[in-house]
Batch of 2 targets.
Target 1
Amino acid sequence: MNGAESLLATMTGAGVETCFANPGTSEMHFLAAVDRAPGLRCALTLFEGVAAGAADGYFRMADKPAATLLHLGPGLANGMANIHNARRAGSGMVNVVGDHASAHLQYDAPLTSDLMGMARAISHWTHRSQTSADVARDAAAAIARAGARKAEIATLVLPGDVAWGPSSGPAPLVRAQDDSRIDAHALESAARALLGGEPTLVILGGRALRAGPLDIAGRIGAKTGCVVAAQFFSARIERGVGRVAVSRIPYAVDPAIAFLKPFRHLVMIETGEPVAFFSYPDKPSLLKADGARSHQVCPAGGDGLAALEALCDLVQARAARAQVQPRAQRGGARGPLTPQSVADVLRDGLPENCILVDESLTTGRETYALTGGAAPHDTLQNMGGSIGFSPPASTGAAMACPDRKVVCMVGDGSAMYTIQALWTQAREGLDVTTIIFANRRYQILNNESVNMGAGALGPKSLELTSIDRPELDFVALAKGMGVPGVRVEDAEGFADALARALAAPGPKLIEVRL
Amino acid sequence: MNGAESLLATMTGAGVETCFANPGTSEMHFLAAVDRAPGLRCALTLFEGVAAGAADGYFRMADKPAATLLHLGPGLANGMANIHNARRAGSGMVNVVGDHASAHLQYDAPLTSDLMGMARAISHWTHRSQTSADVARDAAAAIARAGARKAEIATLVLPGDVAWGPSSGPAPLVRAQDDSRIDAHALESAARALLGGEPTLVILGGRALRAGPLDIAGRIGAKTGCVVAAQFFSARIERGVGRVAVSRIPYAVDPAIAFLKPFRHLVMIETGEPVAFFSYPDKPSLLKADGARSHQVCPAGGDGLAALEALCDLVQARAARAQVQPRAQRGGARGPLTPQSVADVLRDGLPENCILVDESLTTGRETYALTGGAAPHDTLQNMGGSIGFSPPASTGAAMACPDRKVVCMVGDGSAMYTIQALWTQAREGLDVTTIIFANRRYQILNNESVNMGAGALGPKSLELTSIDRPELDFVALAKGMGVPGVRVEDAEGFADALARALAAPGPKLIEVRL
């Protein structure tokens, strides 16, 4: 057994069964070992940003890490933007980055770069394996970090000589210490706030937004009158009919401040205080009302379910009945494509138990609140702000849940960052329907120019926020990667296309021309 | 004048007139300032890898840096692979990376990352501007580094408050100290070697591969009998009919060793000793013959022209006559697409004074030697080994040389990394003809598996080197981004398509189905 084989055996032994791969010459022994690793499913991607984003989507749905296989420093660099998004989402992943044999580094060959510097800039845990005898143990350590409750980005650099040298076999699984990270003092003060009658907002993040913890939060709300909310972006929310609905703290600074203004207490579970996404001249970064008190019960990566259970007991809300999302009135999706008609189509058309990966920045901001009455589903959002998240994350979510439909909502500008994901969806036969909201501009920038105090943009500047010349033809792009697509121009057409796309297995694309 | 305006005025004042941009909210004041910077041409890209690769191609043809405009850490990360390629090519560029205002960083907003760590891992020079009063001076320092003879990657981080705060105006140009970096001792020993009669190889890199220095090298060759060569990859070679042809040191280790075996002396000018691209079990990294002596006359970034002139005088070769590439016999491009017939088409079809950007890994390795007899042209190659170089670099080369035709040769696997470049070519009306060599696999990996001693790949492994399922349709992909394309399946079709593509202005794509 060589080092690469011991690495793969360690991975599959620890339950890491999926690898999103962009291999190169330096990963040749890993590649050859794949054929001798029966428990491993490898999906080829055409660009590392797809591999990294897929690992994020996979983790969110599987609750365990996937691996990526990347080619030296530049391969890791191509994955970094979506690794950043995963990191901010609390998704763990094991990045295996091939490198030159150690003896080759001194010659400064073309692909040599500051690989360790790059890896440290994006990873919680970075290690370069020194010998083929060590690599299995190193892999076990990486998997422990990536698979912990506070899941981390673990990057293992695999030099050629470590991959091809001899190994005595796989290493056993290392179990991470999963501290609940609950702050007992904050828990007590939160309970007092909830019982004290002052307006209180309970903000949930991470795994506290699954149906079970949400039900508990709903009971606390029913008993104490607190409002339950999520940040504007969340890693995964189980929502829809029959689930406890949560308010969403607005994205823009002024509405967010207005939303938060009434609350004298903020209780945070698996998330932190609401902060502005960007910095603006003359606007605050911290959005809570002056004098509002924060109760950080547990941080991201803590045990939010246990925190909510303890809180529920302290406020004696076990017997309360949570208010759940009623079934919405259906129909009404007619005429021009507007935020309302788009939302009508989605509310009626999202199939039960689907996974909605939402990166429709401008469109989604308006439609989200209008789709709460859809059938029960999971929504995944971009947590790191680096666009090009949704097509890869949808790919990974579909790999994790082959029996669920995935609906990917993405703006045209964002989609073009990682459009190569469509090809992997076609190759793996994944049930992903991609909806491109094509407004032919980076509309969010036009909105932000006023918020920034930069004034109205002139013609040369506007050229840098517009993508209408030439117009992107997403149906042609999808065809180029083996995915059937249609373009729709009104609500009826959108509803019909969505129904057809979801009726048959395999990837589809709908270009919604706004 | 605000900080962003002072930055742009400093750039245009110093001759940095082109910016490849992927802006976001944090770059809003830079964006607004573009309208008040009449000397600046901004080209929007759909992905930062295109912006960075375009800056590389621009530098190689313009001999001066372009700027990139990138959005925080993840935007820089998306550009890093092609920044790596540029760095290895000795191309300078000024990366302006927008960031949160400094006061906002403490809140760890979603797009916060280790931006400085990322920047340092890829840049020669990294600086975060502290105040709006400083940024013009900081920009001048960045431009000096990027525009020096030993050109560097200069990354300037522009926090929001620095962009929107007040400035007293632009800063004057700083001139870099351009040392010739010629080693007088190595120059003398090289001259003695050349006159001594032992087999000597003169290896040229960087600007020493332009027509002028090549003519001098050709005289030295005619006088002394030395062989003049280039590394397998070079940043820019002026070649074709009437120019001094250089041998190319092979890519694969065994042929490279065989090529170098006869030479007792290596004279290196603007490049170093030939080393293996990758490390392989039981193969050396350093390729020269045992006992061969190296004469490093000047390193990359040195004054190769001055070095060659001095060497020419020392060996008294001024009056010698360099042997130049004769006109090749034309015609013969018929039948199936083979390395020979592809090369025949290119040799006959490349227009005089065109720029050939060559990243056709498997195909190009065989065709290059067969196209020396084409009309005079410049060839640019990928110096860093991170694929996805050629479509962006072609975009930048066309921006630098609007009166020259650009021919981009790229394999299907490489093209998919940065296929978004086609859209910028269409938007800017650039004269780029992209030739996709579609063999539907990462053929180079299949070749390398044997070299690596990893054995023949099994079926699961082969899936990771093959991109034939589904087949990529590059004509559809091009249509999706506004570029007309055709598919060809034989040499006559290829020749016809190339002639048609080059006859009319604007971008085109030819999918050569191998």
Target 2
Amino acid sequence: MSQRFAVIMAGGSGTRFWPASRAAHPKQFLSLSGGDETLLQASVRRAAAVVGATQVLVVTSARHAETTRAQLPALPAENLLLEPQGRNTAPCIAWAIAHARRRDPQAVLAVLPADPHVGDEQAFEAVLQRALGVAEGGALVTVGITPNRPETGYGYVQVGEQCGDGARRVVAFVEKPDAERAEHFFASGDYLWNSGMFFFSAASMLTAIEAHLPQLARWVVECDEAARRGEEEGFVHDSYASLPSVSIDYGVMERADDILVVPGSFGWDDVGSWSAAWQLSQRDGDDNGCGGGEMLALDASGSYVSAPEGKLVALLGVEDLVVVDTPDALLVMPRERAQQVRRVLDELKARDKTRFL
Amino acid sequence: MSQRFAVIMAGGSGTRFWPASRAAHPKQFLSLSGGDETLLQASVRRAAAVVGATQVLVVTSARHAETTRAQLPALPAENLLLEPQGRNTAPCIAWAIAHARRRDPQAVLAVLPADPHVGDEQAFEAVLQRALGVAEGGALVTVGITPNRPETGYGYVQVGEQCGDGARRVVAFVEKPDAERAEHFFASGDYLWNSGMFFFSAASMLTAIEAHLPQLARWVVECDEAARRGEEEGFVHDSYASLPSVSIDYGVMERADDILVVPGSFGWDDVGSWSAAWQLSQRDGDDNGCGGGEMLALDASGSYVSAPEGKLVALLGVEDLVVVDTPDALLVMPRERAQQVRRVLDELKARDKTRFL
């Protein structure tokens, strides 16, 4: 039987959770819900439940090495792949495939983002097992989330005919729609949310990379040769920046034929903004949620607070606000502005206040 | 010529500026406008300009001794009177009178709160000189502020006939009015804002205290006797708690005849709430004011920020908010709720979170 691997992509440098997330401390290292477990820790725990703890690879930026090791003390050292630069997801996945294939040429991989929220972990694990099983047959597979609302914040997967094992053929990957198209997608039942999770055998994906990103395929071969000489680290350090910065979605999946999708429904959310963090937080009777610190809400409703441990945040008479406090920076905005946090970062750059980024 | 003294009453423990003001660090020790000078420092500086630096007495609580000395390093040690307990203003003023009279039996005193804002300092000093001159003649004198709006947040002084030196007779002291009465007061021209400043000779006020608060008058005599024995500190420590806790307004001024008022107009504000602090702050083109920290306002208006030095406070898309940050507690409320800060303190007490008070 082939070995199964899970690859957690933890290289993100998201800006949507400023000021809690910073260039040096992005979203995956945070706990947004108020619990002790960070998004990365939860992702690794869930993946380990599916493939086993020794089979989880984590790919992140070299600059996050220390934080990642601190958050994942049980991760075997050889399972941590440190990218010298971020080059989007295709190079990151190709490198992880090379690693997995050295352990087992028949390796089958699940590639998972480090930062989604999963509400129903049992259902999640069952869907991953099914998707890995389908991938074992040689197909490139994704998981699509059954929508429960006409969401405009996610990409979609248009699905076609059934093809056994609960999988369906992918007709097309579709960008985030406007409200009207989202309504249509939701009503038709032929569209699933794109979860950003991919499943494949090492051999199948390398064949697809060879077809669509030949430079990256050659790099994998050279990387394996360097590894045999014991020189992988230096090789990656010297060559990684020359790789095409392209996503696996755009670079391979959207160009390949015969992509399958396994539908799933497990309380998934990509937690794309402070508003999503509020949605996922435990809320009081007035719909106020707290993702950290001590909230005191008087005549306040629909608001979200995140603050360092022990810090008191008193809300008096406010509605639908987001208040995120950190030792050196504080953000206050209406919840409906949560998608605009980037504007604050742009303004900080423009004013040369980069110490707050 | 009689010596002139200024008595700065700095014993307040105001709760309206929480979380910047705390039980251990009340409003007079803060700079609310964003400058370096605290309200207490400004009050002492202005008083010294009128009576001379050695003639300024500061009365505060023994618990604030350290903070007061740190903020007023040039204050002569014997000019700092430390109350073992707060007993409102009448005992505090009586004790200050005893001190001044020992230096000069003909002493004339100006009693000033430690925490108002004064916009026009030259006009302020001129009015104080005039009021001291009137008090030298033997009257009990207050200064009334010429209203520039029908304010409901201040008490008023109803004025009567002219009696020379620019002073008028006081008809009555009036509590904070409702909006309708405030409009009437403003339109009539016969009402001034009660500034809480009092001017009198030691002899005149002691006579009035003897008439209306005889227990306090006896205490002054005993205090002088103890001082002659070199035992004032112990005497005050042992006896202060037994004094009536009453304001000089209620205990003496409102019961005495022949009170005079000198009208003044010098950009006076008692800075009674965060909303007043906003009003007095330097504001940007969108009416956002900053009383500390670094404010970054994007699509924000009418808001006020106060934060520790160097802390960034980003406001995105908010209106008319007050955001006050301190190392351990943060308050967010609409500006119009500024009078309700006390509710937060009451709730903290009810939840036994007294460390934040």
